[in-house]
Amino acid sequence: MKALLCKSWGDPETLVLEETATPAPGDHQVLVRVHAAGVNFPDTLIIRKLYQFKPALPFSPGGECAGVVEAVGAKVGHFKAGDRVIAFTGWGSFAEFVLADAKALMPMPAGLDDETAAAFVMTYGTSYHALADRAALQAGETLLVLGAAGGVGLAAVEIGKALGARVIAAASSADKLATCREHGADELIDYSREDLRERLKALTGGRGVDVVYDPVGGAYTEAALRSCAWRGRLLVVGFANGDIPRLPANLALLKGCSIVGVFWGDYTQREPERAQRDLETLLSWMQQGRIRPHIGRRYPLERGGDAIRALMNREVVGKVVVTIAQADRPAGASR
Prior knowledge:
Elements: E1 2-5, E2 16-19, E3 29-39, H1 41-46, E4 64-72, E5 84-88, E6 97-101, E7 105-107, H2 114-118, H3 121-134, E8 142-145, H4 151-162, E9 166-171, H5 174-182, E10 187-190, H6 196-204, E11 209-214, H7 219-226, E12 228-236, H8 249-255, E13 258-261, H9 264-270, H10 272-287, E14 295-300, H11 304-312, E15 319-323
Parallel strand pairs: 8-9, 8-11, 9-10, 11-12, 12-13, 14-15
Antiparallel strand pairs: 1-2, 3-4, 3-6, 3-15, 4-5, 5-7
Helix pairs in contact: 3-4, 3-10, 9-10
């Protein structure tokens, strides 16, 4: 099979496309023929040995995919060859085939195409866990989403609206904010030209925001924390800016607010039943049209490194997807 391999730690340009042996599933594993794989922020870290998980070299990046079951292990009873599935793999999905634990698979809902399915699991799973579970966001509360035009950001905008919140989207350009508006944002802040704190004061009448969804980090985190309302919650989702902020602890004291960590990957391992219920809820919302993943760019497998670079450079609105052509399936086709 063909796989895009990380053979030494480094930037996306070091990834190489090679022929490698197709793996065989263990007793509790499923071999998935990959049709499309989502590109996520952890992919930018894992290839540089900066992520919490460090797979042995060589490996393929790609933490989620959609495709068809090729083979199942001896003790797998609820999937069979030919089943269309969505898989959360952690890594390995930038390849024609990937192994996944049977518990990390879910049946593909009828009518859902491969690319949309591949753009769904990690971003929406993360954002739902953050907002519904960690922040307990309530209808009528005000939610600020930083980096709102990115994959997890747009998912947070949509989920916030689905939960009944007033959503303020912050991003770095008018074009990005226009997409946020299309996905339900009530108010917009262009922090490339507007002062975040002053604009939030104006939008909230000085009260502040109840929940901050922050996948960006850097200087905006402290500004957002200072803009929290009493009993506000700042969700630490990631550091796309590249800088991990050092926050003055007295701000949490003075505002009676909470700084809450969000680590969806570990959540799926520690609380798999709850994580599965989250995804079932999200899939039902997608079928109802309440959420809809926005795919900003598509790349073929051989350009998977370019896909990761585009995400690193924050060039993409919404999700990036890598498509994998098969001998019996032209690139871009869905089953």
